[in-house]
Structures are given as structure tokens and as C-alpha cells.
TrEMBL record:
Keywords: Hydrolase, Transferase
Active site per UniProt: S135, D274, H304
Start and end residues of each AB hydrolase-1 domain: 45-299
A Pfam match: Abhydrolase_1
Protein name: Alpha/beta fold hydrolase
Superkingdom classification of source: Archaea
Native species: Methanobrevibacter arboriphilus
InterPro entries hit by this protein: AB_hydrolase_1, AB_hydrolase_fold, HAT_MetX-like
């Protein structure tokens, strides 16, 4: 996807579930494919891609190998929209809107509503062909399907889950504790970037993104270098309030009580070596809770980020999607 170039728009206003309201919210997005409209002018072949915790609309490049003419996500038949979600850089977030702690708290459901509002206002979309959610994007996709079951025809959950618990919950809390313990944090009213705590928070995630086998293939100097790279990345790109808010939304995510509401045909994709969402603890139990669901589990030494190797299941994806083309 060499021609990737994001676009920018604005939501006139947005009502948060807390009751608070903001105006003029920026939205970053990317589109590829061919829009087809019905007699009422509604685009009826849209597929929405939802990125993971540290991503943005450019994260769609992770699955670029299955996007294009005559591929599972055929750009001659589908109009694919990737949106940088609420709370992530370049769309509305505490840092982007320069509101800091004045930015309203938000939930995963708020992130869903943000995108529904954007799709309606920008593209006049009221129903989509499908939604694909990767990791945290899966939280949104599954919530979307459970809360608005008639909004989509199909759902694909990539390396995700129906609730944040266990070590994922602990990791999000730990990251926030690191940030909030910074003596310059000042309850989110800091005057300069919290470089040290941001670096430590990102480094805390390092041991989980890839497979255990992969980490054992590295020598200690390589691990030191990769951790330093992650720390520097956080210093350059992260904002403390953005992270705290996003982690709060993630730790409150739990749709176990409503997941059975999902009506869309569902494909659950998991990776055996995923340390965040091991299939036996997340994907398999989730498949048993969603009627009309299928599950695919494959191997990747890349672990959680093994969706970079999604081409491994190209045939299975084509088989799942063929009825929607």
C-alpha cells in the first residue's frame, strides 16, 4: 500500500456517554477501493478497519497483502475506510485538542459512536458491509456488533477479546501507575512532556508483543536496543493523558453480558503464540458465545503482531468473504 495518504475531516460535535459534549472534533482517516451507492445515495459496500491500541488509520497497512483487486478485500468490490479512533493521535484526543484533563473521559462504546457519527456525516453511511477490528480495534468492532447488531453484515475480530482481564488489565493499570507516579504529572496538568515515565510505560509492553520463542532468539544486547527504541518512540510520539485515557477505556471494556446480541456473521482470527490474547483464553471462549461464528487459529513467531502475516490465511479469508462480494 505504497500510496497511503491519510485525509482529515471534522465532526461538528460529539456527545460523550458521560453527558459532556465537544465541538469541532478532528478525524483522521484513509480510504481505498470503490464506493457503490444505492438509490438513496447511501454507500452500501463499505468495510471499516479499526486499528489497535498504539495504532492509527495507517495500521491498515498491516493487512495490505490481502487488500487489492481479486484479493480477499477486493478494492474493485469494497470501499474500505480506516479511521483513527477517538483518543488516538491525529483524531480527537486530549493532546490533539489541547484540552489535557479537560477532555471528557470516554469508553470503548464512545469510540464506536464517534465512528458511527463520522461515517454518517462524512459518507452518508448508515449500514456497512463489514467491520474488521485488530486488537483494541476488536474491542470496538465487537462492541459495535453487540450494541448495533443490524449495522453490519459481517464482523472479523483479529487477535482480540470480549473483555479485558488478567495480565492485560494489570498491564494497562501498571502503565498508568508509571505515568501517574511521575512527580511532574500533576493530575494530568503537566507543563512539559513526561519523557521518562512515557518511555518506561512503553518499555513495559515490550515483552508481550511478540512470541516467547522470538524473544529467546535474541541476545541481551538486541533486547536492550529494542527496548531503548520503544522508549524513544514513546518520548517522540506519545502524550501522557492520551495514554491514561485510552488505558482507562480499555480496562473498563467487558461485553460478556451482551456478546450474544451479535447477529453478523463473525470470523474470529487468533494466533497460537499471542501472549496478549491466547486463543484458549480469549478466541475459543468467544467463539462459543457468538452464534454464527467461525474461528481460525494460525502460528506466527510474531505473536500478537502476527497479523502482519495474515497472508497465511488468505484462502480462509477469501472463503469467508466470498458471499459478501
Amino acid at each position: 500500500m505504497d500510496d497511503f495518504s491519510p485525509e482529515y475531516s471534522e465532526l461538528e460535535s460529539f456527545n460523550f456517554s458521560s453527558g459532556k459534549k465537544l465541538k469541532s472534533l478532528p478525524v483522521e482517516y484513509f480510504t481505498i477501493g470503490t464506493p457503490i451507492t444505492d438509490d438513496q445515495g447511501h454507500i452500501n459496500n463499505a468495510i471499516i478497519f479499526l486499528h489497535g491500541w498504539g495504532g492509527d488509520c495507517g495500521s491498515i497497512r498491516r493487512i495490505a497483502e490481502i487488500i487489492g483487486p481479486k484479493k480477499p478485500l477486493d478494492t474493485k468490490k469494497f470501499f474500505i475506510i480506516s479511521i483513527t479512533t477517538l483518543g488516538s493521535p491525529n483524531s480527537a484526543s486530549p493532546s490533539v485538542m489541547n484540552l489535557g484533563r479537560e477532555f471528557p473521559d470516554y469508553s470503548i462504546e464512545d469510540m464506536v459512536k464517534f465512528q458511527i457519527d463520522f461515517l454518517k456525516s462524512k459518507f452518508n453511511i448508515i449500514h456497512v458491509k463489514g467491520i474488521i477490528g485488530n486488537s483494541m480495534g476488536g474491542f470496538e468492532a465487537l462492541t459495535w456488533a453487540a450494541k448495533y447488531p443490524e449495522y453490519m453484515d459481517f464482523l472479523i475480530s483479529l487477535v482480540s477479546t470480549y473483555k479485558v482481564s488478567g495480565h492485560n488489565y494489570a498491564l494497562f493499570k501498571f502503565m498508568n501507575h508509571i505515568i501517574k507516579s511521575d512527580h511532574e504529572y500533576n493530575n494530568g496538568n503537566y507543563s512539559k512532556p513526561l519523557k521518562k515515565s512515557l518511555a518506561l510505560a512503553n518499555e513495559s509492553m515490550y515483552p508481550f508483543g511478540l512470541s516467547k520463542k522470538y524473544y529467546y532468539s535474541l541476545n541481551n544486547n538486541e533486547i536492550d536496543n529494542y527496548m531503548e527504541e520503544m522508549g524513544n518512540e514513546a518520548i517522540e510520539e506519545w502524550d501522557a493523558n492520551d495514554i491514561v485515557y485510552r488505558n482507562n477505556a480499555s480496562t473498563s471494556y467487558d461485553i460478556e453480558d451482551i456478546i450474544s446480541n451479535i447477529e453478523a456473521k463473525t470470523l474470529i482470527v487468533a494466533i497460537n503464540q499471542d501472549q496478549y490474547f491466547p486463543p484458549n483464553l480469549d478466541a475459543i471462549p468467544m467463539s462459543e458465545k457468538i452464534k454464527n461464528s467461525e474461528i481460525i487459529i494460525y502460528d506466527s513467531e510474531m505473536g500478537h503482531i502476527g497479523t502482519h502475516e495474515i497472508i497465511k490465511i488468505e484462502n480462509e479469508l477469501e472463503n469467508f468473504l466470498k458471499e459478501f462480494k
